[in-house]
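User: I'm preparing a small set of examples for a lab meeting where we compare how different chains pack in three dimensions. I only have the primary sequence for this one, and I'd like the structure in token form so I can line it up with the others. Please keep the answer compact; I'll paste it straight into my notes.
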Amino acid sequence: MDYSRLQMRAATLGDLSALTDVLAESFHSREGIFGWVYPILRFGIYEDLRHRLVMGSEHYLCLVAVASSVGVSSSIYRLNQEYILGTVEMSLRSRYAWQLSLTSRYPYLSNLAVHPHYRQQGIAQQLLRICEQTAKSWGFSHLYLHVLENNRPARQLYYKQGYRLKEIDSGWDSVLFGQPRRLFLQKRI
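Assistant: Understood. Below is the structure token output for the 189-residue chain.
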């Protein structure tokens, strides 16, 4: 497939199915028993994302990285067909559920994902840069996210982009079930 011009834009409901595919491929395996539950996991991602896109808010952003392709398919010209290669979401969040005031909220990144075939090409860095610009325009000077301790490629990406460890979340799942700890990272923007 010949790609021309990569662009970043806000996601639309028309992107929902392709976005779901990128997220499901990035976060869930189809190997072994997981192949049986993959459709259920994908459906859950679809519905959660659909809800966030429909509800929207002043301080919610779902970005997509899209590549356009112009080509010939079965003697029919396809003009500007878009392919979603990556995504990220940003919203305001409070650290603890009981903190409801607007002053305790901060911009938080989630679901940064690049399709496995298009990683290591700068797409994630571009998505992060736009999130940083958006957080500044919302009036914030820091940006936050979580990453799993055992996700070495993601940790390397975030550290390279200037994110630093703020706190280690050691929940019951890591203690009782041996799950990896969640690292809470921040970046001054």
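A couple of notes for your slides: Residues 34-55 form the longest helix (22 residues). The CA atoms of residues 143 and 187 lie 5 Å apart.

User: Perfect, thanks.
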